[in-house]
Design goal:
Chain lengths: ~425, ~280
């Protein structure tokens, strides 16, 4: 049962940067010519080598679901591409036992001129199913996608949502022994995402399938995977249980705690409607500490570039170190905020005793017009650490449980 | 259980034809897609496969059959020309389509593993439809002129096979080369235009053999289709059997085909990185 399904040893992948990707004839002739003359064509040495992956070793047992975590550019996709045999490693070796399907993109090979039916066959065979297999599961796939009515319509007339549903329906019915999934769940509506995750969960837990899964959605990772691998700058920096690795990742991420960001005037993020000027959590204790026994003040400053008055609101998503959404805060909940052109400062308070000790970040910061239109969304926002007061005159000494821990008013009779 | 081992230090270039067989479903589905998409939303549909050779044939008949009066050994000129043209048109189609085929499928190449050879192979299958249409057209002309095919027709399957192999040989070379050197996108149309006249399609091969010096004839037959078209026509229309020079073409086709498979395998390993 616990046989090794994937064994990776010392894998490395090197890309040549600054060197023409697909050479021209002229260049090749030039190099041959140099070789002929005996100056052994070392033009390539001026190119800069970039190791996208280095010294990667790990093992995945049969039936295990393993998450791969890392920042953008950490090498996650390259690793999946190598394991899917799309590209070859420069160094090292790996072994895979079992039939592999990799899902690096939804709807690979979809052709707009073909009908939904034909695309199911096309995409299914591309993903490694036999035609007979697809025929057997065809009705199930169509039912899962929910596009029955349009199954004989060319896909070019589908909405993008329908296309994704159809593509996912095919992918969800794959039955390989090993499934490699890149961050494909980022598309599609939330409802359907849940359905797919549910299907995959079912697949991995009930049918003993091995899964390698890349996602930025920590919750999805935690619910689907038991183990995880953390990649940073092309190297494995942590392995272990998924909760442990996710926490390591988020702590590393938060090590660069930024409680205040003031954008230089030339580099303010934004667009033609609004420009973000600064965002900050005001420390409520000396030494720039943020303590949870007092309210926290958050301040967002932006410039409204639109003419005339309009209702503008600031909305933010506060996430904890595990990536859980703690709450959504918005000035839209406090009346009509009619503002004109120019600089504006929005402040709010997070009540005392609401947040646990730990790291927090604003995962999304939105400026919203007329309570519905998103004018601008910013992703790289402040992160901060909340501490318990040094002398805890109250409370629970055990592990933190629940996402918030409000101080409730108790009446004891 | 299936086991895959990839080792960066052990590169063996094997053809691995068994793997190709395992992916035959994908091959068939891709060929079906290309076929279906080719004439999608066209008014005339498959009729286009008939119009193209018919138009060329008309020009050839007027220029070479009526005006220049090429010597065809008693065969009506339209039949003479289409016997050569059907094979050539297939060859040209495969060249045109397989050259760009990998670049056209790059989204797939970058996202999924499969033997890449399937892509140019499926283009060669799509071309067979046009080839068949040209055959029907030729049969129609033969009935119209009351022309009986020669007894050599038993050799026709052999020459059809040679046509396919030579189209594949050059097509696979081009598909692998075009990934690295986009220059070939410019070279292919030129090759096809040039080849139409450097192949005995509008005129019999004897004209070349008689009027050019020996070394020039050898160069002429370095065009793989020169020998194939000659044999193709002989098997249908009879007359002189292919000259000794035609064997230059035949040997070249086999060499090109085998080297194409190996070169393609070599490039396949880095295809996703350089496409």
């Amino acid at each position: 049962m616990s046989d090794i399904a994937i064994k990776v040893e010392n894998l490395g992948k090197c890309y040549q940067i600054g060197h023409a990707k697909s050479g021209e004839l002229r260049e090749s002739f030039g190099q041959w010519f140099k070789k002929l003359k005996g100056s052994n064509g070392k033009a390539a040495e001026t190119a800069y080598e970039f190791w996208a992956l280095q010294n990667i070793s790990f093992e995945v047992r049969e039936g295990q679901a393993v998450g791969i975590i890392g920042h953008n550019g950490a090498g996650k996709s390259t690793l999946l591409k190598i394991l899917s045999r799309i590209t070859e490693p420069t160094k090292g070796r790996f072994e895979i036992r079992g039939r592999v399907s990799s899902l690096l993109e939804v709807g690979t090979g979809f052709h707009p001129e073909l009908s939904g039916r034909e695309n199911i066959y096309l995409n299914g065979t591309i993903l490694g199913m036999k035609r007979s297999e697809i025929r057997a599961k065809f009705d199930e796939i169509v039912a899962f996608s929910g596009v029955e009515k349009f199954i004989d319509t060319p896909v070019k007339h589908y909405s993008s949502g329908m296309k994704v549903r159809l593509a996912f329906a095919v992918a969800a019915h794959l039955e390989p022994e090993i499934l490699i999934i890149d961050e494909v769940l980022a598309v599609g509506d939330a409802e359907f995402q849940k359905k797919c995750l549910g299907k995959m969960d079912e697949v991995s837990k009930n049918e003993g399938r091995t899964i390698l899964f890349v996602s930025h959605n920590m919750l999805a990772l935690q619910s689907l995977c038991s183990e995880a691998i953390l990649l940073s700058s092309g190297e494995v920096t942590a392995t272990g249980s998924v909760d442990q690795v996710v926490s390591t990742y988020l702590r590393a991420f938060n090590a660069s705690e930024k409680i205040k960001i003031v954008y230089p005037s030339s580099e303010c993020p934004g667009n033609q409607s609004v420009k973000l000027l600064s965002q900050e959590v005001v420390p409520n204790e000396h030494d720039h500490l943020i303590v949870n026994d007092r309210p926290l003040e958050m301040t967002f400053r932006f410039e409204n570039l639109q003419k005339g008055e309009s209702v503008l609101d600031v909305t933010f998503h506060l996430a904890d170190e595990m990536g859980n959404l703690v709450f959504v805060g918005s000035s839209a909940f406090s009346g009509n905020n009619m503002v004109g052109n120019g600089l504006h400062c929005y402040s709010c308070q997070i009540p005392a005793y609401l947040l646990h000790e730990g790291f927090y970040l604003i995962s999304r910061l939105l400026i919203v017009k007329d309570k519905g239109t998103i004018l601008y969304e910013h992703r790289d926002n402040i992160t901060f650490q909340v501490k318990e007061p040094t002398v805890a005159e109250f409370g629970w000494k055990g592990a933190k449980e629940g996402i918030v821990r409000p101080k409730l008013e108790w009446v004891i009779k | 259980m299936q086991k895959i081992v990839v080792d960066a230090n052990k590169h063996q270039v094997t053809l691995n034809l068994r793997e190709l067989l395992a992916y035959k479903d994908l091959f068939l589905v891709l060929a079906y897609r290309d076929l279906k998409v080719r004439y999608a939303q066209t008014f005339l549909g498959l009729f286009w496969a008939f119009i193209q050779p018919a138009a060329t044939l008309l020009i050839f008949t007027v220029v070479f059959g009526v005006a220049v009066k090429v010597e065809t050994g008693g065969v009506p000129y339209p039949i003479f020309a289409i016997a050569g043209m059907s094979a050539w048109a297939y060859f040209a189609f495969v060249l045109n389509n397989s050259g760009n085929s990998i670049i056209g499928a790059q989204e797939m190449v970058k996202k999924i593993y499969f033997p890449r050879l399937i892509i140019p192979l499926s283009k060669a299958v799509v071309g067979l439809v046009d080839f068949a249409v040209a055959f029907v057209f030729m049969s129609g002309l033969m009935i119209f002129y009351g022309f009986m095919p020669s007894a050599n027709i038993i050799y026709l399957p052999l020459f059809i096979l040679l046509t396919i192999i030579s189209a594949l040989a050059v097509g696979i070379w081009l598909s692998a080369l075009t990934i690295r050197y986009r220059d070939f996108q410019q070279i292919v149309p030129f090759m096809i235009q040039f080849g139409l006249y450097a192949t005995p399609i509008a005129y019999p091969a004897e004209t070349i053999i008689k009027s050019l010096p020996n070394w020039a004839v050898i160069i002429y037959y370095l065009n793989p289709m020169a020998g194939v078209v000659e044999g193709f026509r002989w098997s249908i229309l009879g007359g002189e059997p292919p000259s000794k020079y035609a064997y230059i073409s035949f040997v070249l086709i086999i060499l090109l085909f085998i080297s194409a498979l190996y070169y393609f395998r070599k490039v396949e390993r880095i295809m996703a990185d350089i496409v």
